[in-house]
Amino acid sequence: MTYTFFDFLQLIGSLGIFIFGMKIFSDGLQKVAGSKLRSILKGMTKNRLSGIVTGFGATTVTQSSTTTTVMVVSFVNAGLITFIESTGVIMGANIGTTVTAWMVSIFGFQMQITPVAVSLIGIFFPFLFFGREKLKNLAEAMIGFGILFIGLEFIKDAVPNIQDNPEMFAALDSFTGFGFASMLLFVLVGTLLTLLTQSSSAATAITLVMLFQGWINFPIAAAMILGENIGTTVTANIAAIIGNVHAKRAARFHLIFNVIGVVWMLLLINPFLNGIDYIMQQFTDVGSMFDATEEARAAATLGISLFHTTFNVLNVILLFAFVPAIIRFVERIQKDKDKEGQAFRLQYISGGLMSSSELSIAQAFKEIELFAKLIEKMHYSFSGLFFKKQKKQEKFLKKIEKREQITDNIELEISEYLTRISSSNLSSEANRRIRSMHSMVNDLERIGDLYYQMSKTFEDMMDLDVALPKEAVVEVSEYLDVILKAIKLMRKNMADLNGQGISLDKAIKMENQINATRDKMKNAHYLRLEEGVYTPQAGVIFLDYITRLEKIGDHIFNVQEALAGRKLKTHSEMLVGR
Length: 578
What we know:
Elements: H1 5-33, H2 35-42, H3 48-62, H4 65-78, H5 83-96, H6 98-109, H7 114-124, H8 127-130, H9 133-158, H10 166-173, H11 180-197, H12 200-213, H13 218-231, H14 234-239, H15 245-267, H16 269-283, H17 294-319, H18 323-333, H19 357-384, H20 390-422, H21 428-463, H22 470-496, H23 505-531, H24 536-564, H25 571-574
């Protein structure tokens, strides 16, 4: 045997180059897609059929079914889509992942792609330094494409030669003579190979290389492909461990759906492979793919790609009508044991970073929207203090205190998440959005602090038995109504944000109204002091409310500026909205 440990290290290194190229290729494609990828994902919520198309499209863009399914699990965990809506996307991802097999089998085995790959790197490499943002992203994708196929060529060269290493082939061949048991064994091998590489694309490439080099035959390669279909579900199930029950259900559905497909295919494997062989013979002149000739092995790589695609398409067609039954089964085995325990937790970013920075930023922004909703709840709780009985007031005070602690945690976790996104290679637009989101999170947390500080002032007022006159309470109530309108405008602008910023006209008018109300209340305050309507102590409390509410208005306007992507610096700019 001539195969040494150093040769084995070259094989591992070649595999690393292939996976590295696949990652660069995938990241580049996702950056090129940008907002288009988000548009694709919006199609998830229509129906199961559109979900299949969405899953296929997203996997074609990301070049990884694992990426798509982990993304889907994160979205289900976030509440962006429901568990039922995710099922169509998962089925579509199974079909989309077969595109990689076709790409590898056509470019990697049917033509000399290495000179083209090196030329691509030479053509696009300069654009990494001199091109525009979109051109840089395209260059990154094309360089990844080139590295991918250079890695594949290295893998082909690093796989042991059969003639020089007959002992290794004999050892492997000894496992192929047990009929159906051998098929089951290599299904397991395919599953383990996917787990080791953490990429069904890499596992598929290795399978195709082994087939091309003659280490395994056509049926064994098909069995490994079936195992890789199971192995690709494991990453999503791992990602779902820290997710909620709906995320777990989406991951379990993917596993069960693929296992069912593998089971029925194994029962029909021989006639199915004969059918694939017959179809391939109609389009090639190399004879049967079951033959051991070099030409037959090359054709067999295309045959495996056809098998992979046909199997996944048929699996979706056959099981489409049974999806509701599979869903019920999944819900039965993955029960919702903690419906209340998830009330106060991050919903959108608890599953970690997404496969693309664009999607990670979108998730973080959804979390900020939820943060703004929590601020609105704090506003209602504080407003209720002035008009409810003491028992209700105590409940509101506890709610405000608890929610203020939550705002501190949310600020910390979102900021950490945004910092992690920033560590990757981002476009200038993505960096701008992250800076704006850092600013929004800080302002929202300050608003939460201000409501808590006002609630403590109200608590002191209760303990000291200090009462504001009726007209002062009415003025505070009216000011709270103005602030509420500003909060609602802020939340509306968050929901309407299209990535290009918002108009500040309404926000400027609202900020001017807040300032005008503050001035009016201050004048009334000083007049009451002069007339002795309330004590200096009550006056200090009233002035404290005015000052803090006006600061809340300032922070709300800061959030609006961050949403708009610009900062108003002069007083004259603020007067435009008057």
